[in-house]
Design goal:
The complex is a heterodimer of chains A (about 290) and B (about 280).
Chain A (H helix, E strand, L loop, with lengths): L3 E10 L7 E11 L4 E6 L5 H8 L7 E6 L2 E2 L4 H10 E4 L12 H11 L4 H14 L16 H13 L5 E5 L7 H18 L2 E6 L2 H7 L2 E6 L2 E6 L1 H5 L2 H6 L6 H11 L10 H17 L2
Parallel strand pairs in A: 3-8, 3-9, 6-7, 7-8
Antiparallel strand pairs in A: 1-2, 1-4, 4-5, 9-10
Chain B lengths: L15 H4 L2 H17 L3 H18 L3 H10 L1 H14 L5 E3 L9 E2 H27 L2 H12 L9 H31 L9 H32 L18 H22 L1 H11 L1
Antiparallel strand pairs in B: 1-2
Chain lengths: ~290, ~280
């Protein structure tokens, strides 16, 4: 049994009006314990809708979401509990900070879970450590922090609930390259320490290629690909036709292949370098 | 839920009502409302009611949207009607359901109830037609023009109009923002849609603080953006669309003047009413 089973999800907005949108069409997939899965798709492909169903903020019109074998949409209580077990961190989470101090803000989730104060304090400290937020900053107002620190603080607020599955919607959006890699390192570090399952929704193919075990590709509400990065990025033309990009290294390899060179597919910097070296080596030895 | 708010909803169209100068529409609506509250007899009211009904027909706004605007105020309509029926003691007694109580339904009560209901609906019909057929920008533009005489008293009409435009423009943006913030706080277990009343109120703080913060941020950004495009307050700003009264506006003024005058004449000249009564009854 997988940790999370998604079966035939369908959902639409503004039903029975001229503005009707079919946001999800018959989406099914499984996610195993400890996996890091990326979800990619064009704007409006249904990614955010899908994520809000995984923690029961939205109820699907058809289909079900099974968390450890139990339907989370079964009752109001199960839906409420699902919010703590599947932690969803929205896009630009720093705009949702509201407490007087960072510590209080991080504690908001655990408090709603009804945990004892000692436990909450302990969790806040741990979450702050995961995101690399200095303990001295915990007593500051979140509005005094820099943009990157605010984002870390907000992500810590979700981590402090210790969810079985952590979903991050565009965690690196609007950050500079340094901030981006810091956030990514932080996610990987968190995963290593807790062994939690992580789902990342992203536009960036580089990020999806660099960190994920598996990638789900959504297009116009339908799940088109569910596979390893290597497999996904070999569908260069299909991805481009969906308005998606591929990692720049894949693009270079593809361009070389188009020119008739025999290069292996690759999607990370290291793999691309190896593939090109191997190709050059092969050309030298067999002229 | 929160997306159902339809303040100032505008349905683009090309009906004669859509094409009327917004200033003409506002002025006509104003006179219409005054007339509506001056008339005290059924014939005048019926005339005005028919007038608003025909206007709605001409505008080709769907019956559903018109019903929506009435439904929003249906409680007030029913409340007034019930109040009149229960408390009005004029006219002959029609029904006395409980002989032991001093409670009865009178002809005067029923008459006034029907009269008031018709009046309120007539009021809603034409007022909602104004926002349905006029884009918010046109509306504020028209208000600015109509209020421009106030400049004599050093009131900054242009600033007021600009504030109104910006406020209207940001309603959908803020609604979307509230939706996102609410979802995000719910994802952390905020009891916004369930739980006791007190808990819900507390949970609202987690929505309003970020909303205020982002509103101020937006306001600051907007101010900078406007200044970058050399926005100056009021004086000597020319406009892309200059409003001019056209023939159809004068025509509309004329038709409305005739109808409103007709309603008032019937109302204030006793002879008319008795004549009409004889004809009808």
């Amino acid at each position: 049994m997988s940790l999370l089973e998604v079966k035939n999800l369908s959902f639409g907005y503004s039903r029975a009006t001229p503005f009707e949108i079919q946001a999800l069409k018959d989406v099914s997939f499984n996610i195993d314990e400890g996996e890091l899965v990326s979800v990619i798709g064009h704007t409006g492909s249904g990614k955010s809708t899908l994520m809000q169903m995984l923690n029961a903020l939205l109820t699907p019109e058809q289909g079900e979401v099974l968390l450890e074998g139990k339907n989370i949409h079964e009752s109001k209580t199960s839906a409420y509990e699902a919010r703590f077990r599947v932690g969803l961190c929205f896009q630009y989470p720093e705009y949702q900070l509201f407490c007087e101090t960072c510590a209080e803000d991080i504690a908001f989730g655990p408090k709603n879970m009804g945990l004892p104060p000692d436990e909450i304090r302990e969790r806040v400290k741990q979450a702050a450590r995961f995101v690399g937020l200095d303990e001295a900053l915990l007593d500051h107002s979140p509005f005094d922090l820099s943009g990157g620190q605010k984002r870390r603080c907000a992500i810590a607020g979700v981590m402090a609930m210790r969810p079985k599955i952590l979903i991050l919607d565009e965690p690196t959006a609007g950050l500079d390259p340094a901030g981006r890699s810091a956030v990514l390192d932080m996610i990987l570090h968190y995963r290593q320490e807790t062994g939690a399952t992580v789902i990342i929704v992203t536009h960036s193919m580089e990020i999806a290629a660099a960190v994920s075990d598996r990638i789900l590709v959504l297009n116009q509400g339908a799940l088109v690909f569910d596979s390893t990065p290597a497999e996904i990025f070999s569908h260069y033309e299909a991805l481009v036709s969906m308005g998606l990009n591929v990692p720049s290294f894949t693009k270079i390899i593809y361009a070389l292949q188009k020119r008739g060179l025999h290069v292996q597919n690759a999607y990370t910097a290291q793999a691309a370098a190896d593939a090109i070296c191997a190709m050059l080596h092969a050309e030298e030895t067999s002229p | 839920m929160i997306k159902d708010i339809t303040i100032g909803q505008f349905f683009p169209g090309s009906s004669p009502i859509h094409k009327l100068d917004p200033r003409a529409k506002i002025l006509i609506l104003l006179v219409y409302i005054i007339t509506l509250f001056l008339v005290k007899n059924f014939f005048s009211l019926l005339l005005l009611f028919l007038f608003s009904f025909i206007c709605v027909l001409i505008s080709k706004i769907s019956a559903k949207s018109v019903w929506k605007s009435i439904r929003a105020l249906i409680f007030i309509v029913i409340f007034t009607a019930v109040l009149q029926i229960v408390y009005n003691k004029n006219g002959t007694v029609l029904l006395k359901p409980f002989p032991q109580f001093d409670f009865c339904i009178t002809s005067g009560g029923v008459f006034t109830a029907v009269f008031l209901v018709l009046r309120i609906i007539a009021l809603i019909l034409l007022s909602s037609l104004l926002t349905y057929t006029t884009s918010p920008t046109m509306l504020t533009d028209a208000i600015e023009r109509l209020l421009s005489p106030l400049k004599l008293f050093h009131i900054k009409v242009h600033s007021l109009a600009m504030m109104m435009t910006i406020a209207l423009r940001f309603i959908p943006t803020l609604i979307r923002e509230i939706d996102i913030i609410m979802s995000a706080q719910k994802a952390r277990g905020a009891k916004l849609d369930a739980g006791k009343f007190g808990e819900r109120i507390k949970a609202l703080i987690s929505v309003f603080v970020p909303l205020f913060v982002s509103s101020f941020r937006r306001a600051a950004e907007l101010a900078v953006a406007m200044e970058c495009r050399c926005y100056t307050d009021g004086a000597n700003r020319s406009r892309l669309k200059v409003m001019r009264f056209a023939l159809r506006d004068y025509l509309a003024f004329f038709i409305c003047a005739v109808i409103f005058a007709g309603a008032l004449v019937v109302n204030y000249v006793p002879l008319c009413q008795s004549l009409l009564f004889e004809r009808v009854i």
